[in-house]
Amino acid sequence: MNSNEIINKAKLWIKAPFDSETQNEIRELLNSDSKDLTDRFYKDLEFGTGGMRGVMGAGTNRINKYTLGKNTQGLSNYLLKTFTGKQPKVAIAYDCRHNSKFFGQSVANVFSANEIQVYLFEDLRATPELSYAVRELGCDAGIVLTASHNPPEYNGYKVYFNDGGQIIPPQDGEIVDEINKVNFEDIKFESNPSLIHIIGEEIDQKFAKEAVANATFKDTKHRDQLKIVFTSLHGTSITMVPKTLELAGFTDVHIVEEQREPNGDFPTVASPNPEEPAALKMATDLADRIGADIVIGTDPDCDRLGIAVRDLDNKLVLLNGNQTFAILVDALLKKWQKEGRIDGRQFVGSTIVSTPMIIKLASSYGVKTKVGLTGFKWIAKMIREAEGKEEFIGGGEESFGFMVGDFVRDKDAVSSTLLACEIAAQAKNNGSSVYAELLELYKKHGFYKEHLISVVKKGVEGAREIEQMMIDMRNSPVTEIHGEKVNFLFDYQTSVCKNLITGEETVIDLPKSNVLIYQTTEGTRMAARPSGTEPKIKFYFSVHTALDDTKDAKKVEAELDQKIQRIIKEFKLN
């Protein structure tokens, strides 16, 4: 889009139907010849792997009342066409971010103006509780206003379907088609208050009970003796995690008070992302002062968690997402095995960029692993397609998300936090630790080590650079990684897996996605994919080797880390 087209597009926003505040914001940008104008209008916000997410402000490439209203009007039109002969129902939740409550009410107004029943949470709530509420209330769709762990200037809009999972093909494409038909003047903002129902405590209680039922073990003792440090990182988890832990019997819980209060500025952290060690520093500092056994922090919308546990030297170490995934899924598999519930019809869910260790681990219990694209909507799809035929035990991905059972069909830091504490309590009762249990898994299945690098490329030029990087890797694949021959190139954009040694090609039976994975003869893997929600390209590395004795764990891990760093240098990514 050239500069004249951008200016003409922007000028539409300085007149009706846009309000005076919006008109003035754009008029100032036009008058000052601001470069920011291009970024606001060069494209429309689109749905990615996590819905629609962007910087707040006026413009088509921003989160605001009108872009959200347009999406909601399009979704309303879709629901009215899809669910004929009934009055559609929608549940809405929102997080702690700036404007989230206002956006939540605005979205509710549009739905109600379209004669759709709305169930709106009374105040901020965890994203997984919205997934639960959709099915519990028999809704046809759900919305969460959140931007997860993005910086404070971001907000977002996640759409869920009637199964409690995020929208997937063909629904997403059909909804986008309806949205594209909507002009801003078509949006119905005048609410029908009689169709907006406020929900809260009753759903909270049911959700907490389900979490306890799914994430605890009957034989766990002395839960009150596990010392836990928890931080909500100024987010929504404060509304649900402490009460769920208490309901399960964990009473020695110490909350990081400086981070207890929900705050969209996230004042005590550079980024409210539990993947970042710095985000959990206040929690680990507190844990060291009081001698806590485990530290858990969640992201602002409470769908992901970071965990720190004591290593063999009693020092706190942060687990990465794949390690947490392995520990949690192993515990669930043990639970199902003890209860005599494994009969060959069960499965766990994983993603193409998560650790391959999960496949080996689940197989040792006689359980298969289904591997899908990045994003929990694909795991939710697995569950929906398996209903009545197979049972879902649990699932996760490397980016610190996990799902316990299928009472929630999105990643859930509430039940995952509870499960992690349950594992820690059992290990402590047995004179062991979470870390020691992890090393035993490595000893049994191989020591797998993963690493993620995100390369940020902002704006129009950044998007072009990311696109070119993917083209180069696709058209000119490397043939060796760390001296190991690359035998497979998985191209999820073309749905082709090519054997680079024999030239043989096979079809990948997954929806198309802009992801490339190189795999060597030794099992080393490198994946690349542009982020669906942020201006960055992500590179995932996975290496592994045998661990014969847990005493050698530090040495083996150091060797794997060094190997990953050499690969990163080889690809000139450092």
From TrEMBL:
Pfam families cross-referenced by the UniProt entry: PGM_PMM_I (PF02878), PGM_PMM_II (PF02879), PGM_PMM_III (PF02880)
EC nos: 5.4.2.-
Cofactor(s) this protein cannot do without: Mg(2+)
Residue ranges of domain Alpha-D-phosphohexomutase alpha/beta/alpha in the record: 46-184, 211-308, 320-442
Keyword terms of this UniProt record: Isomerase, Magnesium, Metal-binding, Phosphoprotein
SUPFAM superfamilies, sorted: Phosphoglucomutase, C-terminal domain, Phosphoglucomutase, first 3 domains
InterPro entries (UniProt xref): A-D-PHexomutase_a/b/a-I, A-D-PHexomutase_a/b/a-I/II/III, A-D-PHexomutase_a/b/a-II, A-D-PHexomutase_a/b/a-III, A-D-PHexomutase_C_sf, A-D-PHexomutase_CS, Alpha-D-phosphohexomutase_SF
Gene Ontology MF term list: isomerase activity
Keyword Magnesium: yes
Family: Belongs to the phosphohexose mutase family.
Protein name: Phospho-sugar mutase
Organism: Lutimonas vermicola
